[in-house]
Amino acid sequence: MTDWVRGTGDRELLEYLDFQCPYCRAAHGAIKSVVLDDLAGRVRLRVRHFPIREKHPRAEATARAAEAAGRQGRFWEMHDLLFARFDAVTDEDLEAYASELGLDVARFAADVADPALAAAVEEDRQAGLAQGVTGTPGLFLDGERYTGFYDREALLDVLW
Questions:
Q1: Could you give the strand order of the β-sheet that contains 43-49, starting from the edge strand earlier in sequence?
Q2: Under CATH, what is the fold of the domain 4-159?
Q3: CA-wise closest residue to 56 among 79, 29, 89, 28
Q4: Neighbour-count burial for 21-55, b at 16+ CB within 10 Å, e otherwise
């Protein structure tokens, strides 16, 4: 399993996410601010996919789109774009985002369809289940399950 990591530091925030989850979307700005601004150099974010397919029919597609962008070095850009454009995630939208990010769109489309990429997303989901994740965002601070609020102040309180 290859996790995507953003930021540096000794503290770690592991997030199991679903790009179609409104709670993940709400937490996104706070997590990004804490990791890249408030505690830059002190905490890193590690993300794994946890698509909740039963509730979010486009969760799998968006996870695969982020992974496909990652194969071209643009995971984090796609990650942020998927949360910014939360309600527009048709296949055509995802390909338009790939183009907007300067990706090779034909390669992106082929990667989205790659069974190995689907297996990687499922591996993340299985790891989450093994850690007791039942919903998203599933957060762990330095290996311990975090069940508090997802706003900036709450995250700063537990990470500082």
A1: 4-8, 43-49, 11-17, 138-141, 144-146
A2: Glutaredoxin (3.40.30)
A3: 89
A4: beebbebbebbbebbeebbeeebbbebbbbbbeee
pLDDT of 26-48, one tens digit each? Answer: 999 999 999 889 999 999 999 99
Residue 1 confidence class, pLDDT cut points 50, 70, 90: low
φ, ψ of residue 12 to 5 degrees: the values are -130, 135
Residues 6+ apart with CB under 8 A from 50: 16, 17, 18, 124, 125, 128, 133, 136, 138
38 CB contacts (<8 Å, ≥6 apart)?
152, 156
Per-residue pLDDT at 96 exceeds 80: yes
Burial class (CB in 10 A: 0-12, 13-18, 19+), 72: middle
Q: Domain boundaries in the chain?
A: 4-159
On the question of a cis peptide bond just before residue 115, with omega within 30 degrees of 0, the verdict is no
